[in-house]
Amino acid sequence: MEIALCGAFGGQLFFGWLGDRMGRKKVYGITLMLMLASSIASAFSMGSSRESVITCLCFFRFWLGFGIGGDYPLSATIMAEYANIETRGAFIAAVFAMQGLGIVAGSAVAIIVSACFRAAYSDPTSMQQDMVWRIILMVGAVPAGFTYYWRMKMPETARYTALVAKDPKKAAKDMSKVNVEMNIVEDEDSVLRIETSEPQFGLFSRYFVKHHGLQLLGTASTWFFVDVAFYSSNLFQNDIYHNIDLLKKPCEYVKPLEEVFDSAVAQLVIALCGTLPGYIFTILLVDRIGRIKIQLGGFLFMSIFMFALAIPYNSYWLQHENRFGFLAIYCLTFFFANFGPNTTTFIVPAELFPARLRSTCHGISAAAGKAGAIIGAFGFLYASQSTDKNEDPNDCDTGGYPRGIGANTALIRSILGVASCLGFFCTFLIPETKGRSLEENEIEQELPESENNIELNGLNRRSSTQQLQTMSN
């Protein structure tokens, strides 16, 4: 997973920048093809030894992460530029919520495949066990493959075509394809007004720093802190399950397929009880409550629950009778992460920055998040490995865990609580984008308010159901 995170970091920066240079649609297809090829190639990782197979797998997982990373800024930007003001937040959140459905589907696939192999082979060979993870990885490419046709049929966003590519005729034509019920007429005067009055500034210009510098700092820092907490909790969830006896200790598993099955079931329970409901609540409420209030509330409750798990961990939560209380608070942590900053950090950068830099700034913000995830992954992995060196991972009487995370869990969760607190305060750098037209970022500094109602604002009143279905797929 750490290798995929490194790939995602690079992909978000590169494809975010490319989306503002080549267009959203074209780069969107490139990222999908990269994901498909890398996912299938991962399943066919080969080598003369176990180490060489792992090396080959890591190589393809890096490029899979690179493609997935590129999908972040493009998916959010495309949906933001197609959606209307009233439902834009819900539409973008729905795109991100597909990640939650993916977690549920991935867990279900792992359960089904491992159960089938357990039923078919009472004593599976190493080659048969090796087939399990390869099949799981290969199945992951199937849903992505089904979306290729719809992605290629989708026209370029009118906002990119009109505001960045400066082709108003094509923008009107494309929007007529999408919104068949709308009679879109190209207004040359309106488009000319945008082109002549729009301040021409770059990412590293003094103008951008003045008007958007603190906003970019806010979106990047909040994404950084939420990913430190969110991904670190995900990475060590199996160790936590072992410590509170929701899963057997690794030394107690005789058959690897049994461990795969039990881990997938535990992950599915967390996804259904905490992760997926959090996404659903965000979709339903983000356009009513607002992005910033949801983000502040999410960070606040994440901090509370992280400290609630950390402070009494060794004295209370490790007791067997309290394990279900631990699981309940653990699920609530994921619920408020997703009904909070894990989703809103994906939404806000797509709404806040001007069209010519929208994908780039979203990519920078997302890459900051992946930097937090990488720091959390490698930093806490080192911390967990440096605990009790006298524990024998093969001896259930002296520990029986692959890493001595138990003694460090309280410290790690306290650090994650502090990260959530910092994310809470960094949120105040970001303005609320609920009810705000995307075009305000283009010309608000140059034109009177009365002139801001350009023809493209017609997109803010209506959007296409067809495009929502395409993006959700």
TrEMBL record:
Gene3D superfamilies in alphabetical order: MFS general substrate transporter like domains (1.20.1250.20)
Q: Name one GO cellular component term.
A: membrane
Segments traversing the membrane: 27-46, 52-70, 91-120, 132-150, 214-232, 264-286, 298-318, 324-348, 360-383, 410-430
Q: Where is the Major facilitator superfamily (MFS) profile domain?
A: 1-434
Does Oxidoreductase show up as a keyword for this record? no
Q: Per UniProt, which keywords does this protein have?
A: Membrane, Phosphate transport, Symport, Transmembrane, Transmembrane helix, Transport
Taking the first listed entry, what is the main subcellular location of this protein, grouped into a coarse class?
membrane
Q: Enumerate the subcellular locations listed in this protein's record, separating them with semicolons.
A: Membrane
Cited InterPro entries = MFS_dom (IPR020846), MFS_sugar_transport-like (IPR005828), MFS_trans_sf (IPR036259)
Q: Does the record bear Cytoplasm in its keywords?
A: no
Q: Which PANTHER family match?
A: SOLUTE CARRIER FAMILY 22 MEMBER (PTHR24064)
Family under the similarity heading: Belongs to the major facilitator superfamily. Phosphate:H(+) symporter (TC 2.A.1.9) family.
Name listed for the protein in its UniProt record: Major facilitator superfamily (MFS) profile domain-containing protein
